[in-house]
């Protein structure tokens, strides 16, 4: 009797789950921006990750979670530290510029990762990476120039752009760590330990930066904590079950969700320079990233 051909795993569910995770991340960004405007970036991040840890710890234990072995624990700690720097710089920049522009700038992270791989892993720089970097820089320049009138400079737009680019640089490192982490741990453990490490790291500065939050700030950060934990676990599940070339295009829907959230919550318009710069950055990503590239969650809201 002839053997039945192997049944291909359906990609419908990972695609659906990843799309839902991106939407959760974008709503979380909006909640964090509101909390940061009210109570400061430091308190918003400390409270959000505190809520996330309190939410995920019981789920981790009830799912049979045990203290991770050394290889997994090292990746958890390292990614938590990198995520802390990424998140602080990202949300510091986010309160100084529209959400759609911040997300568009964050898409440059994969292009930065190409050059980090050349420095850290001694990979050869291919000509597509050079073209991609030039396109990405052009896209950043278009977005930045669109913000550089006198009023916006006085409002801190330039510093906001710089903070987002710093965040994207650290997130490029996070891309590699995420792939390693997904191979060593399940989604619930990933979400719990990332929040835990970030809380411990941020708590070091509590004697100098912590202030008692307003009730509204607590509400927004609690919502952000639930959304962040749900989104992180959701995306970890999806990225563990589908290839990068399948899920990568879904990540760019974050711009649509960010633009919608920015418009509804903060009355932020989407400008033509933002759309033009976004197009250049996305073309750069398409040119520079090979189809067989490692699994990367490129959207910056995963912090």
Structure, described:
It is a single chain. With 303 residues, the protein is mostly helical. The chain has one domain. Helices cover 77% and strands 0% of the residues. It has 14 helices and no strands. The protein has helices at residues 12-39, 41-62, 70-94, 99-106, 109-120, 127-146, 150-154, 157-184, 187-203, 206-209, 215-239, 244-251, 254-266, 272-288. The chain is globular. It starts with 11 loop residues before the first helix and ends in a 15-residue tail after the last helix. The relative contact order is 0.23. The model is unreliable at 1-8 and 291-302 (pLDDT under 50).
Brief overview:
With 303 residues, the protein is mainly α.
Which structural class best describes the helix and strand composition?
Answer: mainly alpha
Q: Give, in order, the helices and strands.
A: HHHHHHHHHHHHHH
Number of domains: 1
Count of helical stretches: 14
Shape: globular
Distance from N terminus to C terminus (CA atoms, Å) equals 53 Å
Residue stretches low in confidence (pLDDT < 50, at least 5 long) are 1-8, 291-302
Report strand %.
under 5%
**What kind of sheet is the major sheet?**
none
Rg from C-alpha positions?
Answer: 19 Å
| Secondary structure: number of strands | 0
Give the helix level as a range of percent.
over 70%
Arithmetic mean of pLDDT: 82
């Amino acid at each position: 009797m002839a053997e039945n051909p192997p049944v291909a795993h359906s990609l419908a569910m990972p695609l659906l789950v990843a799309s839902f995770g991106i939407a959760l991340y974008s709503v979380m960004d909006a909640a964090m921006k509101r909390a940061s405007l009210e109570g400061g970036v430091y308190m918003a991040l400390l409270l959000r990750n505190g809520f996330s840890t309190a939410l995920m710890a019981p789920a981790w234990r009830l799912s049979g979670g045990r203290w991770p072995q050394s290889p997994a624990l090292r990746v958890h700690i390292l990614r938590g530290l990198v995520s802390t720097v990424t998140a602080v710089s990202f949300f510091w920049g986010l309160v100084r510029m529209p959400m759609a522009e911040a997300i568009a700038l964050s898409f440059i992270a994969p292009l930065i990762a190409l050059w980090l791989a050349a420095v850290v892993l001694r990979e050869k720089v291919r000509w597509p990476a050079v073209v991609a970097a030039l396109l990405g820089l052009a896209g950043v320049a278009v977005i930045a120039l669109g913000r550089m009138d006198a009023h916006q400079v006085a409002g801190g737009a330039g510093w906001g752009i710089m903070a987002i680019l710093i965040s994207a640089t650290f997130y490029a490192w996070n891309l590699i760590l995420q792939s390693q982490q997904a191979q060593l741990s399940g989604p619930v453990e990933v979400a719990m330990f990332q929040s835990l490490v970030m809380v411990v790291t941020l708590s070091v500065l509590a004697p100098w930066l912590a202030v008692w939050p307003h009730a509204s700030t607590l509400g927004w950060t609690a919502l952000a904590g639930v959304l962040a934990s749900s989104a992180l676990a959701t995306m970890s599940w999806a990225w563990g079950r589908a290839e990068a070339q399948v899920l990568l295009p879904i990540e760019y829907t974050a711009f649509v969700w960010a633009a919608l959230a920015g418009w509804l919550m903060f009355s932020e318009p989407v400008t033509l320079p933002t759309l033009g710069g976004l197009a250049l950055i996305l073309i750069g990503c398409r040119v520079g990233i090979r189809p067989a590239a490692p699994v990367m969650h490129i959207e910056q809201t995963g912090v």
